[in-house]
Design a protein that fits this description.
By secondary structure, the chain is of the alpha/beta class. The chain has one domain: 3-Layer(aba) Sandwich (Rossmann fold). It has twelve helices and seven strands. A seven-stranded mixed β-sheet has the order 3-4-2-5-1-6-7, sandwiched between helices. Helix 1 packs across helix 12. The longest helix has 20 residues. It comes from Rhodococcus antarcticus. This is ParA family protein. InterPro entries: AAA_dom, DNA_Partitioning_ATPase, P-loop_NTPase.
Length: 289
């Protein structure tokens, strides 16, 4: 199936996009003739409610639509990623929790297909909340997730890990096995304050556990250009983080709550919507970077 055309990002009369700068040209994603090894990306922000799970699902679906093989990892005990893909997560017999704490459980025992062609899922539920305690006494506890993912990395082009909104052991596991981090952030003052704390954590993980870890980009979500506050926060983020901020900005829309109820990505639920177009544009930026 051909990849839908992605229109150029919206610009104002001066040719500037929502970030306050001219959008940079992004090449067409190359067609792949083979898959793997996967690039592991942690979707991370210790602040909740910033669109992290929504972005993981929809970026994954957009990458799959662009011909990439994608694995989503639900590393949040709330199981929002699994629920957002229509999985009855409270009824699951095997989850990421089993994978992390039981040696006899293999990744293929837990792996699930999703309704998106080319996108698989490692689901989670509240059982995962016990993993932090169970892993504390393990040798090499920070590398546990990396060890269990390693056997399937050659099958995928991208592994997207939806981290919980905290900087505990599970999140450190994600950062230890990741090649890069995408930080979704809501365009408001408290999100801006949290970025400094998260940046400190990334530097500590890079120094002590994972020297290849880098910040892939900051994704601004829930943006409303009509408010002065949002525009001021956007200007400050771009001033501090520069080109690290993606040109693609995710605007507020009623479509995202609808997709959560439907258990689908916006790419399949409302493929012609502005939200779907935005995540396709983000996927192109991620591939290009």
């Amino acid at each position: 199936m051909p990849t839908p055309q992605v229109p150029a990002p919206p610009v104002d009369a001066d040719g500037l996009g929502p970030t306050g700068r001219a959008p940079r040209p992004v090449p067409e994603p190359p067609v792949l003739t083979s898959h793997g090894p996967a690039r592991v990306i942690a979707m991370c922000n210790q602040k909740g409610g910033v669109g992290k799970t929504t972005s993981t699902i929809n970026l994954g679906a957009a990458l799959a639509e662009a011909g990439r093989r994608v694995l989503l990892v639900d590393l949040d005990p709330q199981g929002a990623l699994s629920a957002g893909l229509g999985v009855a997560h409270h009824e699951l017999e095997l989850t990421v929790h089993n994978l992390l704490v039981e040696r006899k459980v293999s990744i293929d025992d837990v792996l699930m297909r999703t309704h998106v062609d080319g996108m698989d899922l490692l689901p989670s539920n509240i059982d995962l909340s016990a993993a932090e305690i169970q892993l504390v006494t393990e040798v090499g506890r920070e590398q546990t997730l990396g060890r269990v993912l390693h056997p399937v990395l050659d099958r995928y082009d991208y592994v997207l890990i939806d981290c919980q909104p905290s900087l505990g052991l599970l999140t450190v596991n994600a950062l230890t096995c990741a090649d890069a981090v995408i930080i979704p952030m809501e365009c408001e003052y408290f999100s801006l304050r949290g970025l400094a704390l998260l940046n400190d954590t990334l530097e500590k993980v890079r120094d002590r556990l994972n020297p290849r870890l880098r910040l892939a980009g900051i994704l601004v979500t829930m943006f409303d250009a009509r408010t002065l506050h949002a525009r001021e926060v956007m200007a400050r983020v771009v001033e501090v983080f520069g080109d690290t901020v993606y040109d693609t900005v995710i605007n507020r829309t009623v479509k995202f709550p609808e997709t959560s109820v439907a258990g689908e990505s916006i790419i399949t639920w409302a493929p012609k919507s502005a939200g779907a177009t935005a995540y396709r544009a983000l996927a192109r930026e991620v591939i290009a970077r």
